[in-house]
Amino acid sequence: MDVDGSKEGDPPPESSSSRTNPFRVKLYPSTFAGPFLVYFRKKDKPINVLLISSEIYKKYSSVKEIKKISLDKLRVIFGKREDANSLLESQLFANSYRVYAPCDFCEISGVIYDESLKSDDVRNSGVGVFKNNSISPVQVLECNRLSKLILSDKGSEYVHSNCFKITFAGSVLPDFVVVNNVTFDVRLYFPKLMHCERCLLFGHTIKFCSNKPKCGKCGEPHSSTECGKSSDICIYCKQKHLSFKECSVYKSKQAKLNQKLKNKNQTSYSEILKSSDDFSDPNIFDNLSVDVQDDSTNANEFIYKPPIKRKKVTNLDKKSNFSFQPTTSFDKHFPRLNSSQRTIPGFQKIDDEPSTSKKSANINDTSENATHNNDKSSILVILEELVELLGFSNFWKSLIKKILPFLANLFEKLNSFGPIIASFFSS
Fold first, then answer.
1. Which residues fall within 8 angstroms of residue 385, CB to CB, at 6 or more apart?
2. Torsions phi, psi of 47, nearest 5?
3. Contact at 8 Å (CB) between 206 and 198?
4. DSSP class of residue 244?
5. How far apart, in whole angstroms, are the C-alpha atoms of residue 206 and residue 219?
6. Which of 72, 192, 237, 386 could bond to 42 as cystine, CB 3.0-4.6 Å?
7. pLDDT score at 207
8. d(Cα 115, Cα 412) in Å, to the nearest integer?
9. The predicted structure's pLDDT at residue 172
10. Which ranges are annotated Basic and acidic residues under compositional bias (predicted)?
11. Exposed, middle or buried: residue 90 (CB in 10 Å: 0-12, 13-18, 19+)?
12. Distance between CA atoms of 174 and 169, rounded to whole angstroms?
């Protein structure tokens, strides 16, 4: 959609004396990042691309592209805002062509509601401000009181309403407009969807239409005055309705246009916030007196201080000699344990025995078992030698060898009871 600032479908504003110039030059604001587009439209003569190109390249150095996008329209892209605004304000092509910038890139419109307000007051002393103080205020370019259509038995007439349409510089809608130190909330203005009565397309008006005419009765490529058909069916939605605003196709396109304006305003606002250096809001307590800021009555009040956190030591080299440095009084009085020391010095678990006693007990047990085994083996050797000397047969030898362990154990038992028997006979 080519938005060039014309709003022929809107109702007339309050009066011609208080209206601003409809051909006001639209310039790019300093907040716009680019690219900077400038369009040429023909008035009476066709567009001479070579002549326009030679003149522009002579005067401006930041020209990126010059392209003819239709029979009666030319587009110039600049890299610098100053060159684009200079061409828009120049009178070099004013007599032959209409030179303008897209309205959506240069300005944005909002509405406010008040019965006693006047358009001249807003236009002369009004300024747009934002909630975020890091964004600079914007200038009010235009203000008009909107009118509403009243239907009666006598006919229809336009009556002034309490709604004002305000045009601001830039592509971001301010949150408020301040007029003589009075703040008014600003809402986004949604223009009516432009509709051409010549080609029956949306997005432009008959004033800037170069398409072939189309019949509004049958939809064929001829003028409506030349058509003899009479039909109540809408050529867009194929339904019957009295008003064009009841068309489902028109409603859908109007809703898409409104959503597009919302998204564009949000995107432009986020871009300005990114480019802003300071996002901090002013401190509301800056104006407090010294007595309020430093209250002596709270001198004895307990002030909580968070505990000191130790720094975590990571990636220590095991081979390196790391010496722990106590940082607090607790570390000085209660030093850390060495990694090799498993227990606290001077303390011992109740159910654990001392290590030295365990070692001595194990040594005694092993020595006793060794002597016991030696005595037992010596007894077996003596008994085997006695069997060989007595000359027993093989049968008896094998039998005696089987009972030798029993005899050895018996001899050992008798040996253990020796002191008891000796004391018995001595008594």
1. none
2. -75, 125
3. yes
4. G
5. 17
6. 72
7. 83
8. 129
9. 87
10. 1-10
11. middle
12. 10
Q: Which two tokens stand for residue 369?
A: 């078992």
Please say whether the beta carbons of 110 and 141 come within 8 A: no
CA distance 191 to 189: 6
- Whether the CB-CB separation of 157 and 150 falls below 8 Å is answered with yes
| Residues forming a β-bridge with 99 | 40
pLDDT band per the 50, 70, 90 thresholds, residue 176: very high
Mean pLDDT of 352-381: 55
From the number of C-beta atoms within 10 Å of its C-beta (0-12, 13-18, 19+), residue 169 rates as: buried
- d(C-alpha 154, C-alpha 162), whole Å: 24
- Return the pLDDT at 420: 64
- Give the list of residues 6+ apart from residue 5 with CB closer than 8 angstroms, or none: 22, 26, 100, 103
What's at 92, amino acid-wise?
L
Per DSSP, the residues of 316-331 read --SSS-------SHHH
Query: Distance between CA 57 and CA 50 in Å, rounded?
Result: 11
Q: Report residue 343's pLDDT band, with 50, 70 and 90 as the boundaries.
A: low
DSSP-based three-state secondary structure for 36: strand
First to last CA, the chain: 138
Give the CA-trace dihedral at 288, 293, 295, 296, to 10 degrees. -130
- pTM here? 0.54
Residue in the block written with tokens 């600079």: 136
Both structure tokens of 20? 């601003």
Coil vs helix vs strand at 385: helix
Q: Strand order of the sheet with strand 138-152?
A: 182-185, 176-179, 126-129, 138-152, 155-169, 107-113, 187-188
* Contacts of residue 253, Cβ cutoff 8 Å, sequence gap at least 6: 193, 202
Q: CA–CA distance from 22 to each of 4, 124, 144, 213, 326 (Å)?
A: 11, 17, 12, 27, 80
The DSSP symbol for 202 reads: B
| Selection from 65, 9, 8, 20 nearest residue 39 by Cα | 65
Architecture of the CATH domain 27-100: 2-Layer Sandwich (3.30)
Question: What pLDDT digit, counting tens, does each position of 69-93 carry?
Answer: 888 899 999 999 999 999 999 988 9
Nearest to 409 by CA among 380, 389, 388: 380
For residue 112, list its beta bridge partners.
Answer: 164
